[in-house]
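Marked as duplicate of an earlier ticket. Keeping the data here for the record.
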Amino acid sequence: MDVWSWGWLILGAVLLVGEIVTAGFFLLVFGIGALGSFLVAVLGGSVLWQWITFLVVSTLAFAFSRRFAEKVNKGPEDYGVGAERYTGDRAWVIETIDAAAATGMVRIDREEWRADSSDNSVIQAETWTEIVRVDGTRMVVKQAEEAGTAAPEDAPVDFGADRQAETE
């Protein structure tokens, strides 16, 4: 093995180890390219073919790794963590949402949240909304497309009703 073979092997190992200790999938593709060039050097390929192999293999590894990297490197925009998991879900308005009066509450499953309208419009109680985003401790909602004023059959149960009856 000549000096180029050792150089490609060491470069590939350093890049692969560097990938382990860094975020992202940036060094991995160059490590794979360096190992490909190492194989060409061991088989007796010229320095020019080693560099061509490095560029081609690194480019192909980059192209094929993007799909995998996007799945692994999801951010808060891609999947819900905590309250963000509700983005896009429907919520039942239990208190009229009115920015001027600083009122508004929605129920999602068994949880009640303060709510704001995404366009500052008034959204009447007992209607369905869609959650646009979470802003601190408030849900930002918009009127749902199929929202009606009548409570649908799958309307959430008023879990606080029994507590209110006891205090009265």
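See parent ticket for discussion. The two ends are 89 Å apart (CA to CA).
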